[in-house]
């Protein structure tokens, strides 16, 4: 099984946090995969989504990209920022 961490920088806007939370809920509804939304302590513009125990990396990554596009996720990002995916595997 693998775990996915997606991080990015978000513009400072009152609606950003609720839109991010809505996105996480939409991912869960569409994929069945619950995620966790995190914000960096010393840099509140940096956010991260984490998803655990992903069985099919390629399929989930594609689903996530489609959902981000449908949600106009790019409108939330700081200029020059993008969604960065980091994949990890469970060992032991």
Give a short overview.
By secondary structure, this protein is of the alpha+beta class. It contains two helices and four strands.
Could you please describe the fold and organization of this structure?
- This protein has 92 residues and is of the alpha+beta class.
- The protein has one domain: Alpha-Beta Plaits (2-Layer Sandwich).
- It contains two helices and four strands.
- It has helices at 16-31, 57-70; strands at residues 2-9, 35-39, 46-54, 84-89.
- A four-stranded antiparallel sheet has the order 2-3-1-4, with helices on one face.
- α1 packs across α2.
- The longest helix is centred in the first third of the chain and has 16 residues, at 16-31.
- The protein is globular and about 40 Å long.
- The relative contact order is 0.33.
- Pfam families: DUF4936.
- This is dTDP-4-dehydrorhamnose reductase.
- InterPro entries: DUF4936.
Question: How do the helices and strands line up, and which of them pair or pack?
Answer:
Elements: E1 2-9, H1 16-31, E2 35-39, E3 46-54, H2 57-70, E4 84-89
Antiparallel strand pairs: 1-3, 1-4, 2-3
Helix pairs in contact: 1-2
């Amino acid at each position: 099984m693998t775990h996915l961490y997606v991080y990015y920088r978000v513009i400072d806007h009152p609606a950003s946090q609720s839109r991010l939370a809505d996105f996480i809920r939409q991912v869960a509804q569409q994929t069945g995969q619950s995620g966790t939304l995190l914000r960096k302590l010393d840099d509140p513009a940096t956010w991260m989504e984490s998803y655990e125990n992903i069985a099919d990396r390629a399929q989930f990554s594609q689903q996530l990209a489609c959902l981000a596009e449908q949600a106009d996720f790019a409108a939330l990002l700081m200029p020059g920022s993008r969604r960065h995916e980091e994949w990890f595997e469970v060992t032991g």
